[in-house]
Automatic annotation (TrEMBL):
Domain of life, per lineage: Bacteria
Organism in which the protein naturally occurs: Geotoga petraea
Keyword hit for Transferase: no
Keywords annotated in UniProt: ATP-binding, Cell membrane, Membrane, Nucleotide-binding, Translocase, Transport
SMART domains in alphabetical order: AAA
Listed GO MF terms: ATP binding; ATP hydrolysis activity; ATPase-coupled transmembrane transporter activity
Predominant localisation class: membrane
Domain ABC transporter positions: 3-230
Highest classification ranks of the organism: Bacteria, Thermotogati, Thermotogota, Thermotogae, Petrotogales
Ubl conjugation keyword on record: no
Compartments (UniProt record): Cell membrane
One Pfam family hit: ABC_tran
Protein name, entry field: ATP-binding cassette domain-containing protein
One annotated Gene Ontology cellular component of this protein: ATP-binding cassette (ABC) transporter complex
SUPFAM superfamilies: P-loop containing nucleoside triphosphate hydrolases
């Protein structure tokens, strides 16, 4: 197995949140993780990225249990970028994780440059992260993870805090990461976030309720997923998405 979990279970105290979860992800796969509020999406992602370490079953990365050495290969992006930003400048923020793992200076500078290019923040190296827009902050949070060169990136509702313009910026970056061959799993309530995923995993009552192709999911399952306003309007008036986001963003 490239990445996934076997017979995984998790409880908060007496409250069993995840029951016997078995999911396998292939390298380079782009998957949406859906489910009602409280269905356990964040908990599952925190377990799979190694943030939570007390659970039943196993998280597997490249045929082995995820461990201290390999969990660096699995990045986690929080819903609120503010929770992830620590630096005084944009480049310091990206440097933080690299410093923690003792990256040599030349390599660190190379990775910071590359990560900021990938997320489209080149030129803002010396800026104060607090001065950035919501979309830019989320892209900075993504850059800090990308700089660690993860093979898998788990994104926990990465566009929920953003306006339409910010969302569009983040979609572009996610697409770029997919094109770079990263394995991306995105938890979301917004079907616009899931337009390009090839697979959907849906959680319900602590279990995997659906796991299959995105098109099959939308054909057969009604998960009462909230639609962001711009997606609703897009469907109604069939306007070009970019034009619409520009219109809503003004
Ligand atoms: N620290 C905690 N202590 C106790 N219960 C918790 C804790 N964090 C989450 N829960 C509960 O665990 C369940 C799953 O929460 P989780 O945040 O994983 O769901 P989610 O699917 O990500 O929800 P949302 O879509 O609202 O973000 C919920 O019932 C929640 O109330």
């Amino acid at each position: 197995m490239f990445f996934g979990c076997k017979n995984m279970g998790f409880s908060y105290g007496e409250n069993k949140i995840l029951k016997d979860i078995n999911i396998e992800f292939e390298k380079g796969e782009f998957t949406g993780l859906v489910g009602d509020n409280g269905s356990g999406k964040s908990t599952l992602m925190k377990i799979m990225s190694g943030i939570f370490t007390e659970y039943d079953g196993e998280v597997v990365f490249k045929e082995e249990s995820l461990n201290e050495d390999t969990k660096i290969k699995v990045g986690y992006i929080f819903q609120n970028p503010e929770n992830q930003i620590v630096g005084v400048t944009v480049e310091e923020d990206v440097a933080f994780g690299l410093e923690n793992i003792g990256t040599e200076r030349e390599e660190m500078l190379r990775r910071i440059k590359w990560a900021l290019e990938v997320v489209g923040l080149k030129g803002l190296e010396k800026s104060d992260p607090n001065s950035l827009s919501g979309g830019q902050k989320q892209r900075l949070a993504i850059a800090s993870i990308v700089a660690m060169d993860p093979e898998v990136i788990l994104m926990d509702e990465p566009t929920t805090m953003l306006d339409p313009v910010g969302r569009r910026e983040v979609y572009k970056v996610i697409k770029r990461l997919v094109n770079l061959g990263k394995t991306i799993i995105i938890a979301s309530h917004h079907s616009a976030d899931l337009e390009e995923v090839s697979r959907i995993v849906a959680l319900k009552d602590g279990k995997v309720h659906f796991d299959g192709k995105r098109d099959e999911f939308y054909k057969n399952h009604d998960f009462n997923i909230e639609y962001p306003i711009e997606f609703e309007i897009k469907k109604k008036i069939n306007k070009n998405y970019d034009e619409l986001v520009k219109y809503l963003g003004d």
